Amino acid sequence: MGAALVTRLLVGAIVALFFIIRIACETISFYWLRPRRIRMIMERQGVRGPNPRFLVGNIPEMAKLIAKSTANDMNYVNHNVVPRLLPHYAIWSKTYGKRFVFWNGTEPRLCVTDLGMINTLLRKYSMVSGKSWMQQQGVKHFIGRGLLFANGDEWYQQRHILAPAFTPHKLKRYCVDVEESTAQMIEKLNTKIREGRSEFEISEYLKQLTAEIISKLEFGPNFEKGKQIFTRLTDLQRLSAQASKHLCLPGSRFFPSKYNRQIKALKGEVDKSLMEIIQGRKDCVDIGRSDTHGQDFLGVLLDEIGREKMNGSSDHNGFHLNLEMIMDELKTFFFAGHDTTALLLSWTVMLLATNPLWQDKVRAEVKDVCGSDAPSSQHVSKFCVLSMVINESLRLYPSATLIPRMAFQDFQLGDLLIPKGLSIWIPVVAIHHNEELWGLDVNEFNPNRFATRVGGHFLPFGAGPRNCIGQAFALMEAKIILASLIQRFNFVISNNYRHAPEVVLTVRPKYGIQVILKPVTA
Ligand code: HEM
């Protein structure tokens, strides 16, 4: 009896020791050996960069540079934003050349601006590269395993399941919601003007508008509840944005720190409310109260689960959608689909408010195309000048400053061997402001450059199979909203506007966009 107990204890101790040694080895490999190996491989190929510090890499240096470059507003509305938004890129690309490696904590990141390499990476290697562990950890509590952060086969199957939600027929349907919500916002603005107000912080209105629209797209009749949930999700996004500061230390995500506790509590609250909507919609069909899950995005996803149940198998190579994943997709699409579009609209209003000649040109086009009708999906394809203006806005202020990809296996990219575990960063905002690609007026607002097709150096929606799934919808939505605004109002930039773009996941105006609105008289 005694001997058996001792044997069991001994076996237990050996197993525990085995696991401790394994975890220690994995930690050493992950935090030290692997990064060292990647650094050596890249140095052998002549790619260098700033020296990283243990565990924190170049994060403190980047944080310091950004704090300095964004400490003050820009002197006047000028669009030379790269030294302000990516000061580390501006300095390191001068010191180390067009491609260099820097370290986000223990994650090595190769910065690449060569268009041939970018094209190959985004188009050819979409299955063997993707979002890194560090990035996934940063958004784990916020949007989880939805399309934006999924990788490999899981990403591929999700993309195929979600594509039917963005057919031209569905987009037209969603536009009815865009038109309705825009009309309501315009009415709100008009009421305030009638009450005597003339200055508006327009980006706040546009954020609320796009949040309402994406909530309608996702939840249809349940959109008001969806909107409330998404307010909490925005708080969660703000907390998650600080993740890189909190994830450098090994195991830090397990510490019961104030940050970790706050994030978990908020996530619990958001998930519970979302699950109530999802389950409610599903129950209606299960108990026979309704024979359809609905035409909205949630309906498309629940239909997919219903189809799997009926067929008894998945059409997607064994990949199964479940309610948890639906929740992650709903959060992902809210995150990816409302702030980005609101920012496009806000920057475009700012650009038109500071370029009255272009504002007049767009207004004349809207009058030509729509007459006195409210802009709608049927007008969208006829807005040529507006399209050029939107593209120029996306060039100067792309919501996504960077497109990241981590290599999941070794592969050849141009003349470089990319080792497994190396992250590749495409600095979109720097490419969009590159004089060699765009000409001497690169930092000026000149929509005429989009009068003809531009090449692979215009990347506001990414490229290749992993490009933005919502691109067509975002552009339709933006055109309807901007055309509606410009049809009804003249906008002039207010003296209170402070030009201070900053990056908080996306490129945003630090103090909003203050404009003076005057109703257009016929
Ligand atoms: C002006 C508005 C928008 C901009 C500038 C934008 C930009 C982007 C970019 C650059 C990517 C690629 C990210 C990468 O390759 O890592 C992306 C992906 C994505 N976008 Fe958008 N987006 C916009 C609007 C939308 C809208 C309206 C939706 C949804 C309704 C949406 C949903 C997504 C999703 C789900 C992905 C991930 C696609 C995948 O990985 O397969 N986006 N977006």
UniProtKB/TrEMBL annotation:
Keywords, ordered alphabetically: Heme, Iron, Membrane, Metal-binding, Monooxygenase, Oxidoreductase, Transmembrane, Transmembrane helix
Cellular component aspect of the GO annotation: membrane
Binding site for heme: 468
Claim: Lipoprotein is one of the keywords in the record: no
Localisation per UniProt entry: Membrane
Protein name: Cytochrome P450
Necessary cofactors: heme
Residue spans crossing the bilayer: 6-33
SUPFAM superfamilies: Cytochrome P450
Pfam family for this entry, one: p450
Natural source organism: Kalanchoe fedtschenkoi
Entry's family note: Belongs to the cytochrome P450 family.
UniProt GO molecular function: heme binding; iron ion binding; monooxygenase activity; oxidoreductase activity, acting on paired donors, with incorporation or reduction of molecular oxygen
